[in-house]
UniProtKB/TrEMBL annotation:
A Pfam family of this chain: RecX_HTH2
GO cellular component, one term: cytoplasm
InterPro entries: RecX_HTH_2nd (IPR053924), RecX_HTH_3rd (IPR053925), Regulatory_RecX (IPR003783), WH-like_DNA-bd_sf (IPR036388)
Name under which the protein is recorded: Regulatory protein RecX
Organism, as annotated: Acinetobacter tandoii DSM 14970 = CIP 107469
Keyword Isomerase in annotation: no
Record lineage: Bacteria, Pseudomonadati, Pseudomonadota, Gammaproteobacteria, Moraxellales
GO biological process, one term: regulation of DNA repair
Function: Modulates RecA activity.
Domain RecX third three-helical as annotated: residue spans: 147-190
Length: 197
C-alpha cells in the first residue's frame, strides 16, 4: 500500500523538538504495551519512578488483569515506585476498599488447585507461595470430601482395582502423596473397593 493513502497523522520530529524527550519516553512506554503478553501491563520505563496518581493508575492496571495477593502486589509495584512506603500504604488502601482481596485470591487458588486434582497439602503450599494465610479457606478445606477427590484421581490414573502387589501399592501412595493428600486419606483410597460407600 502506498503511503499517500495513509498520510502521517503526527509529526514526531516536530513534537520531539517542541516538548523535548518526554514525548519519546511516552511513545516508548506506549510501544511496550503492544509487544507481547509479557509486557501487556503498561510497564513504565526503567528511569521513571512512579508516585501519587501515576502509581495508583499502574496499580489499577495491574489489578484489572489478574488478582494478586497483598504481598505479590507490593512486590510488583515496588519495582517501579519511588517509595516502598507509599506502595505499602496504597496496597493497604486498595485492600480496605476491596479492590485487592487475599480472600478472593485464596478462593481462586483453592478452586484452581482442586480442579487440577491437588490435595490439601499442595493447596496450602500454593497459598504459602503467594504469602496468603491458609486460615482464609480453612472452612472450605474442611467441607471437601478429600477421600472422594483422591479416589477419583486414583481411578483415573490406576483404575478401580485394589492392588495386592506392594510395589504397585507404593506407586499409588507416592502418586497421591505428591498430589498433596494426607496418608490417612491415601490408605482409605488405595483399599477402597468400587462398591464401598
Amino acid at each position: 500500500m502506498s503511503q499517500s493513502k495513509f498520510p502521517k497523522l503526527l509529526d514526531y520530529e516536530r513534537l520531539k523538538q517542541e516538548f523535548g524527550t518526554s514525548s519519546t519516553e511516552h511513545t516508548a512506554s506506549q510501544d511496550t504495551t503492544n509487544d507481547s503478553d509479557a509486557t501487556i501491563e503498561t510497564i513504565p520505563p526503567q528511569n521513571i519512578r512512579l508516585t501519587g496518581s501515576r502509581l495508583r493508575s499502574y496499580a489499577f492496571a495491574v489489578l484489572t488483569r489478574k488478582e494478586f495477593s497483598k504481598a505479590e502486589l507490593i512486590e510488583k509495584l515496588a519495582v517501579y515506585a519511588a517509595s516502598r512506603e507509599e506502595v505499602i500504604n496504597l496496597v493497604n488502601e486498595l485492600s480496605e476498599q476491596n479492590y485487592q482481596s487475599d480472600q478472593r485470591v485464596a478462593d481462586i487458588v483453592l478452586s484452581s488447585q482442586k480442579r487440577k486434582g491437588k490435595g490439601p497439602q499442595r493447596i496450602k503450599l500454593a497459598l504459602k507461595n503467594k504469602k496468603i494465610n491458609s486460615d482464609l479457606i480453612q472452612e472450605e478445606l474442611k467441607a471437601i470430601d478429600w477421600v472422594e477427590q483422591a479416589y477419583q484421581l486414583k481411578i483415573k490414573k490406576f483404575g478401580n482395582t485394589v492392588e495386592k502387589d506392594p510395589k504397585l501399592k507404593a506407586k499409588q501412595i507416592r502418586f497421591l502423596q505428591y498430589r498433596g493428600f494426607d496418608m490417612e486419606v491415601i490408605m482409605k483410597v488405595i483399599n477402597k473397593k468400587e462398591d464401598d460407600e
